[in-house]
Amino acid sequence: MSDPIKLTNLTRQFQRGNMDVQALRGVDLSIEPGEFVALVGPSGSGKSTLLNLLGGLDRASAGELWLNGTALHTATEADRTLHRRLRVGFIFQSFNLLPRLTTLENVAVPLMLAGVSVAEREARAKALLEKVGLGHRLDHYPTELSGGEQQRTAVARALIHNPSLILADEPTGNLDSKTGEEVMALLKELNREQGITLIVVTHDEEVAAYADRIVKLRDGDIVEEVKKEWDADYPDFPDRNQKNQADQANQRPIPKGLQFNDIVRQALSNLRRRPVRNVLTAGGVLIGIVTLVAMVSFGVGVQREVQRNFESIGLENLFVRPVYDEPDAFDPFAEPSPQTPLTPELVAQIEQIPDVINVTPELILPYSIDIALTYNDTSLPIRVTDGNEPEFTFGTDPEPLAGSFLDSRATAGTVLVKGVADSLLAEGESYDDLVGQDVALTVQLPRGETQTFTSEIVGVRDGFGGSIIELGLAEREAILAWWYNEPDILQTDGYDSLTVQTTDLGAITAVSSQIEELGLQTQSLEAILNVANQVLGLMQALLGSVGGLALLVAALGVANTMMMAIYERTREIGVLKALGASAREIRALFTVEAAMLGLLGGFFGLIFGTLLGRLVDWIGHRFLIAEGVTGIGQLSVVPPWLAIGALAFAAFIGVVAGLYPAARAAKLDPVAALRHE
Ligand code: ADP
Ligand code: MG
Asked: Which residues constitute the domain of residue 333?
């Protein structure tokens, strides 16, 4: 037979203001295993305080409290939690069922806290509910039950983990007398059948009459004990030799504790309680994550695109331009003139430099130039590119649709972009029919004079726009000579720039210094790329700080919501603790809930951020295409690491925001929490 419950000089005093309240003044009491004790006494006499000490919800100020060999007066918080989880079943006056859980789930809570699987705990709860006559109420919520049904559910919950001790504080206080009797009969039956020690606090004489012993308290002291002299033939005689559950409870393995999947399940169900508030809170996280995802996705996309395009042009290329004179202070409209013009002779000289493979000169037509293209009877205004401008070299070059491209050394010829070629084709003609034909290019000076140049079509290429052609160097030179009225324009002004291709990246430095010695300036793509990356990084940092700020505000929102949730659920936290939840588990519950709140915002933020990126991307492309720029890939890219990172970061924000509220919840004193209205 197991040890009795033994109280020696048990004292509990409370501080109220600067007054000491003696709730218990040195109580001595011994309770046999399987005994049914009624604690009676006027209000404020210390009954609940005593019960809370027995249940390990509270700690004595002085004295000793032994329970099945455990010294509860010195037990740590963890030991007392284990004591509640393993050995004690609580029954409260106001039932204290968890409102979000069904009858079945409520009864299963102590098993959930002990880490028992869903299937097993629901089977056990169902069996027990059937035993207390609630087999038909399994899926009902507490609000759908009568008081008697709620209390019977609470009795089942107190029993589900086979405790050795049941502590009931005014269990019939909120019930009518008939229902109260039913509940007492049920408790007594359990006490007799299973040998569970039963300690019931009551005001009610009739309830007390069920007990083996009545202990009367007044002002924190035992003033009277009445022991029933049961007749051995009397059917209610307690069978002391019956196998007591206390023994079994002590031999049972230590339960595993609340499992992570149950924490997640509870957090989700709690989030659903306040959908509007939680969605609004998550909305704050959403805004922050949208900003961050859009920002990083553009960073990634633009960087990739820049890299890809620069690589397709070739990092081993050098751009060469002349050094220009300071503009003439007296004539602000004067064209800047180059110190060393990029003449064909200079180009030939550069071609001789070791490691130079190829030099492509460029001549740029004035931006304001008006050119009309005439072929047969068709005449249309056109824009000219040389096929070397970035807008045409970006992206991978498609095959020509007919003829050939202007190669870098080509000096003459016209390549039509598809849209132009389409306008020129007569019925039944193909692009190939255009190749080899001459077109007339009529250039008009701003003051009205016109001049016509002839050029041969060498090819047709794919591309957007209906007014673009590529024009060879010879035609450009002729047009410019006429435009500026400088017949020797290549000698006086020279080319606008050169692209110098070197054998490899390693040759760039040597080649560029030799070119600079000729009085020219050079620029390598690598240097441009570095600058581009720096600008991009700066932009990202800026956007990032906006997103970061949004997330900071969002974190405050999450923290606030969690604080409110804790305030609303203070009593539930008390109940969970009474049923054996540890402080750590309560903290985990709230932390996970906060993380979910963040995750919720993060999830939708990721979706909206991705969509926003795509939208901006799409609008940007429309714009670029309208400007004649094609071949640019997707600029907003969400790689997997960004998606996962965004979700993890959102959850992390939630966790950080939830740290303080969760610690507050974990620290709640269960006795005070249970009193909370
Ligand atoms: P009963 O359950 O018999 O009505 P309690 O055990 O609840 O009495 O309370 C006993 C005495 O201790 C009362 O005077 C009560 O006001 C006081 N008391 C109980 N808990 C606290 C507390 N947390 N702080 C201050 N006083 C308390
Ligand atoms: Mg009380």
From this structure: 314-523
